[in-house]
């Protein structure tokens, strides 16, 4: 089973909405009995262009003071880092150098420009980081109780399943597979045939996952349609707290590269999203 061994890297932009990612990182640190490294990246003035010019050292010092104030009194061990430069490069380097097991990042949806900048950073980070990346969207009042695991039955999606098994009990998991129907064959008989085939493939996939041997299996849900659309609809209908996906797969969620599905889920999912690369650290 994939184990989360090592500190959690929290990417923070010092915004009020970033508190959601901080709260989730603290809950996970308690659950996994690990520490947090809180990293804020001060972008170069040429990249940022959103604030009046100030010396880098001054901006770094202010970020350090803000982080230390916000993190004061928490019951988990937290180390604060402030770096200057490209955010994705700095996050990758900090995660690798410190042996981090997970990167936690938030999204800024309320401010259009902030959403574009931070969204681009998160999507690039998901593609390039060696560690699983958790994108936090909701408030974190408690540990995760349920999760929806997107699967195309590839080894990439098996790694994603393994990762979430370290965070939640099997009873809280649902394995979700989306399938396409041929353009000229959308009748009920064809749909039922595809659904039956998908359900059989899901059962074989779970049976071939060693971490589930001798244990109850996750629930299985299959549906016809565009993967990111049916996934987000189902997550919304069932009030899923976490959506888990691999960053790439061999076949995609049938005809769609799972990496592009992951990008779409980060933007559209109504809940937090955990993206796991096939070769996790």
UniProtKB/TrEMBL annotation:
SUPFAM superfamilies with a match to the protein in the record: Adenine nucleotide alpha hydrolases-like
Pfam families: Usp
Record-annotated UspA domain positions: 7-137, 144-277
UniProt superkingdom: Bacteria
Family from the record: Belongs to the universal stress protein A family.
UniProt cross-references to PANTHER family, sorted A to Z: STRESS RESPONSE PROTEIN NHAX, UNIVERSAL STRESS PROTEIN UP12
Name under which the protein is recorded: Universal stress protein
């Amino acid at each position: 089973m994939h184990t989360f061994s090592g500190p959690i890297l929290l990417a923070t932009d010092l915004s009020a909405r970033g508190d959601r990612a901080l709260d989730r990182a603290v809950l996970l640190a308690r659950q996994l009995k690990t520490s947090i490294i809180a990293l804020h990246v001060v972008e170069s003035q040429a990249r940022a262009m959103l604030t009046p010019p100030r010396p880098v050292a001054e901006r770094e010092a202010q970020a350090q003071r803000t982080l230390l104030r916000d993190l004061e009194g928490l019951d988990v061990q937290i180390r604060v880092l402030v770096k200057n430069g490209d955010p994705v490069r700095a996050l990758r380097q900090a995660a690798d150098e410190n042996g981090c097991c997970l990167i936690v990042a938030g999204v800024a949806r309320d401010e259009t420009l902030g959403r574009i900048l931070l969204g681009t950073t998160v999507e690039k980070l998901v593609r390039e980081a060696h560690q699983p990346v958790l994108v936090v969207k909701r408030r974190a009042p408690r540990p995760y109780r349920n999760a929806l695991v997107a699967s195309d039955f590839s080894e990439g999606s098996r790694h994603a399943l393994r990762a979430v098994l370290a965070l939640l009990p099997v009873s809280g998991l649902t394995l979700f597979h989306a399938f396409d129907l041929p353009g000229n064959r959308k009748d009920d008989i064809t749909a039922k045939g595809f659904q039956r085939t998908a359900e059989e493939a899901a059962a074989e996939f779970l049976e071939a996952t060693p971490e589930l041997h001798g244990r109850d299996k996750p629930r299985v849900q299959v549906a016809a349609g565009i993967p990111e659309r049916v996934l987000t609809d189902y997550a919304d209908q069932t009030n899923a707290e976490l959506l888990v996906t691999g960053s790439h797969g061999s076949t995609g969620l049938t005809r769609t590269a799972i990496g592009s599905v992951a990008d779409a889920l980060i933007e559209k999912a109504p809940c937090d999203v955990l993206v796991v690369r096939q070769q996790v650290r």
